[in-house]
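Tutorial handout. Part one gives the primary structure; part two gives the three-dimensional structure as tokens.
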Amino acid sequence: MKKIYSLIIILISLSLIGLVIIQVSWIQNAIILKQEQFEQNIQTAITDVGRDLAEQKGIQFSLGSPKLLQDWPTDQFLQLTRPPSIAQKYTSFEVGERIKKAFNTYGLKDTKFEFAILNHSNLRNIYEMQSPNFSVLLSDTIRNKAFGIALSPVSGSISEGLVADEELYIVVPSVKNFVLRSLGWLIAGALLFTLIIIAAFSVTVRTMLKQKKLSEIKSDFINNMTHEFKTPLATISLAVDALKNEKVIQDREKMDYFSGIIKDENKRMNVQVETILQAALLDKQEVQLNLMPKHVHEILYNVLDNFKLQLDEKNAKVDLAFNAKKDMIEADEVHFTNLLNNLVDNAIKYSGDKGLQLQVNTQNSGKFIRIRIEDNGIGMNKETVTRAFEKFYRAHTGNIHNVKGFGLGLSYVKAMVDAHKGKIKVDSTLGKGTIFTLEFPVIQ
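Part two.
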């Protein structure tokens, strides 16, 4: 069974890791494709703007045809006949509007940009026109993307070779961030569903481990129950056989002795059955408490008095220090007595071979009464302490069944403490002993 659980967890883990890797790869490819599409749209829009501006470059100002004079200098004549540059023909606002219109046409409506027109006249590169933040964005080419196109007139036209050699440059800030924002819903959805799958996987694994744990607890419970019932049944069987003996039948004292054994063992089995039924009621939260004002000290005295014989058999030394001046609480006498019985009974059961030293003291802490029950028994390790109040849990002792029980005692104690609006804490050191500290609200 353990191998099957391990195999299932490994297979699910590998599937989940593979799915995450595929998801990450798919998102990366989607980002790359989106960025390429985005840059292609920008380049197409710039090409349209550049073609439009280049066509307009060949058209001169409406000044009329100049009258040619033989004595005009050649450079002056060329100056008059040279078509205007983009900076001479358009304002920065007009060029920006043309670019914005082209961007809108290709689905780049909210894309920010800065632009400039570079003039290569006289072998010098001069920005004859640029938007306010062009230089700032151009300086950071790591985050920003620059695009350019030559503004040349149509090949074979009259103005070819006469107009200034110009280029249009456009810088788009944070192209990758823009792409990520445009894919935001897609990335968010992928991450969300990945997290859901991881959460479902975690819940599945946790449920499997819990079921495995419950299966182990059930097996332990059945083994304990079989052992608990087997001993009294065997004793009853022997006592019944003895009662059939002629010598026993004729001896009234022996008849009473064996009848008493049957009665005691029957009572013991009834207690075990009642314990299991109580656990079932606690699961269904059907336990009804009959709360009444009760003195804690009085109940403690009664509990210790009931264990007098067991304490004497253990040669126990009991130290009492009832220092609480206010010991009145709202309690169900039966259940409150039972929870204290369980704690004292555990101290006796797990006292080991050394003489039991049991210390019971009380004191007031604000509006609470604190009960402290300390023993010098075998104690518990850290794992047992953390799981002490779990139902059916018992410390592993191999095949040794020297301590009876189903592992229901402390879970019952915790449930009853909670039902009385109290708190319980356990401190234990293996081989040195255990301390149970309980707190309950006092009433005036």
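Part three, for discussion. The longest helix spans residues 184-243. The chain has three domains: 2-58+72-182, 185-284, 292-441.
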